[in-house]
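Can't paste images in this forum, so I'm doing it all in text. The chain is below; anyone willing to post the predicted structure tokens underneath?
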Amino acid sequence: MSASVATVVNSAADRDRVIELLKKRKPPYMVSIKNGKHRSIEQNKLQRLWINEAA
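Text version of the structure:
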């Protein structure tokens, strides 16, 4: 199992999937939950610009 997992929860099914992931992990582990939203189209365009410049 990977050391770190990050996921966006947009539905009850997503939430249930995260709960199942937690049930399968052996303690100890740390959980962080924060409010969030998807990036805007403008943010995505800027990120792609930076990635293309770095490549």
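Helices lie at 12-24, 41-54. The radius of gyration is 16 Å.
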